[in-house]
Amino acid sequence: MLCYKYHAMHDNTPQLLAMFSPCIPLATLIFFSCILHFAQQASTSSFIGQGYRLISIQIAPDAAIHALLQVKQTNNIYGADIPLLRFYAKHETENRLRVHITDAKNKRWEVPYDLLPREQPPPIKQSIEFLKKKNSTWVSEYSGSELVLTYTPDPFSFAVTRKSNGDTLFNSTYDDSHPFGPLVFKDQYLEISTKLSKDASLYGLGEHTQPHGIKLNPNDPYTLFTTDISAFNVNADLYGSHPVYMDLRNEGGKAYAHGVLLLNSNGMDVFYTGTSLTYKVIGGVLDFYFFAGPSPLNVVDQYTSLIGRPAPMPYWAFGFHQCKFGYQNVSVIEEVVENYQKAKIPLDVIWNDDDHMDGAKDFTLHPVNYPRSKLLKFLDKIHNIGMKYVVIIDPGIAVNESYEVYQRGMANDVFIKHDGEPFTGQVWPGAVYFPDFLNPKTVSWWGDEIRRFHELVPVDGLWIDMNEASNFCTGKCRIHEGRICPNETQPWICCFDCRDITNTKWDNPPYKINASGVHAPLGSKTIATSAVHYNGVLEYDAHSLYGLSESIATHKALLDIQKKRPFILSRSTYVGSGKYVAHWTGDISSRWEDLRYSIITMLNFGIYGIPMVGADICGFFITFTDHEELCNRWIQLGAFYPFSRDHADFNSPRQELYLWDSVAESARNALGMRYKLLPYLYTLNYEAHVSGAPIARPLFFSFPSYVECYSLSTQFLLGKSLMISPVLEQGKAQVNALFPPGTWYSLFDLTYTIVSKEGTYVTLDAPLNVVNVHLYQNVILPMQQGGMVTKEARTTPFNLIVTFPAGANDGEATGNLFLDDDELQEMKLGSGYPIATYIDFHATVREETVKVWSQVVEGEFALEKGWIIDKISVLGLNGGGELHTIMIDGEPSTYVSNVKVYTTEHKYLHDEGDGRNNIEMVEFESLNIPLGKNFSLSWKMTY
Hints:
This protein folds into 4 domains: 43 residues, no CATH class; 251 residues, glycosyl hydrolase (family 31) (Immunoglobulin-like), CATH 2.60.40.1760; 314 residues, Glycosidases (TIM Barrel, Alpha-Beta Barrel); 245 residues, Golgi alpha-mannosidase II (Immunoglobulin-like, Sandwich). It has 15 helices and 56 strands. The strands form 12 sheets. The protein has a 9-stranded parallel β-sheet. Strands 3-4-5-6-19-16-15-13 form an 8-stranded antiparallel β-sheet. It starts with a strand and ends with a strand. One of its GO terms (molecular function) is hydrolase activity, hydrolyzing O-glycosyl compounds. One of its GO terms (biological process) is carbohydrate metabolic process.
């Protein structure tokens, strides 16, 4: 058992050192560590500093504020105070305010502007000269279109309010009513706090596994520092760092949301008490961005407008993916594909973990298990039916003089250094060096290695893992002569001779963040934080950017090589990663808790601007033998993750979906529906790319005024109107699902209806092969007829499902559809070529007349593909009827006589209505309407 032993450091900060000995279990120690940590912070925060006073302020010609802040009283707690700060604020857009605080005399580390492009504040020298030339202008407020900045001079603090309702969104003013002190700014310790409304519901500040749900829980620890620890560890810093939160408030029945980003890549603890939030950061600057909202969708739109819109994904990426660490040879993956086909379970992508490599070395093939000739023959076979192949790449490059990738890396000087030599770590191949992706030469070298490998094996996508960066050792290491390393049976156990690096302030900073949930040293199981990147950048500052920088380099390489839209999956992420990669939730267990937690993490990443996300279906570490029921329920949920993949650990038993008859049946049902929904999912992919809108989202995105949704973490929406209510508990055959106000229709049987007048919980039957999915009123959902691969599903006719409120005499519904050539690098309209189609759909019911029509914005691509609308189902009507007319581009259709009309009475599963009559679904089949042309059809209801 890996345990930890308490050790008190000289500064009274609890420190927990890894020991391999009988001691306290890790989970217990994390719990007590958190209590100690919070007690220590509560007892000392008021003594850390006395704050700063404003000594000069001016508004520049570009309407930005420049100010100087002088420290009131110095001390040496966590280091010396920086005596003079430059305060800079600017309304960068109508809905975005920036506040930037840094040292007024010395340049400090910031997230590189070439890594995350954004507007740069003016040089500090320019601010100082500007302030010297003019007398201070003591403005009372700094107002934009919706956000207003005010400040208090002594001790200096600032507040951000919403102009439309006067609500305070952020307020760093210190007073006795809140348990935080004034601004602190030292070289390795920055502290700032804000008061919060008692009505505030907060979301974000990840990546963590949150056992209490998606809504942040007061007094849970929120530490940000990218770390390779398994995601079944709750409330610990995991693979990504996203120092952004959304604040949702309900005031008198009306909801308002705003967002706050602290753009800082250094390690930090964020303390949330319920009425305040305190940042304790160990370096960099305070670079805040405030996003006005006021809806949750507005916040994500404004956030991704700054950090980069989510990457467009190829169509096949929305199919089902299968992987396992331990597919020993080509014959095994051939067998897996064949078994999926025999079981008639859809499958689009087969993956390899390290198994295809020669000695776990990147960009190689195992000469016996994965000979190139046999692998290429297999790829030809799957490519011919539209399937794809993705392989893993870890950043650590094996230290091996005969390994050409290593040779070229050394020749180009691409590795991170320590004491002037490449820093040595241990990962799967043994001794490794870590590429420095902040170095332009590394980006070129990395791209060339991917090109060489792609010429060897035409992979369709890449999976970049272990990029926190992960290291099986800690400290300064060397290989012991004569020792076999790694040990074949336990390659994840460090087998080097290592010594701790604690003699620098970068490896042993004065303030200890709650790393790994146990106050682990910063360099534990990663690159030493005193290691050096290109241009002298310290790992201490850039650590959490490693995954982002590798993602950018990999994305550039695939764009250059494939000349088409890349697919990249990354474990480690940072602000802006969604512009380049998808994400999965890492190494989780096959436990019912992890099934539940996966929804929370998925929804958080939609807020972070990384909408293509999912968890390892059935779990990565299989921890018990009775796995069948859990795998049933997991594929029912996982079929509706944006990224849907089954994956398991090397030492876990096989868990492909065809291995159990019951799981295979659940997979055919759930994945069968997913493949029918592909046009809808792909349209959500387009909306994410142009506006940042999450594909999977919490219910409060569509129902922000319904407070019951604010903490709901067991259901979610795909888009604005498709609700998934999975079974998440063992032995259950029912699910108690929340239905916000309105009419909901079962997607698997459109006749089943739930009418919720004011919002209610409804108990739904959910036998082992059933997942409950419901479609909301007032929408038009485009679907196709499914298939075994996305290539096949894409050729089938379209169906439209139109939903009205039950029995409405006056209502309307809308929907949209985007389709394109998914190999194009960009996802856009208006190119002048038939490469994309975009359509708005509309429907109305006015007294007795029903009308459904389309407005084609661009249709040539759909016409070229020959797509047709075969069926339209209209739900919630007071009566049936005969089709009156079909118009196509203004001309009557010649197919009216072939159209079949069916009327079916809806069945109420739950009705809070006002004694309404029976309602009906009317379906029109054999329509044969060209998708790329404007159409309309109408009829009068009969009773």
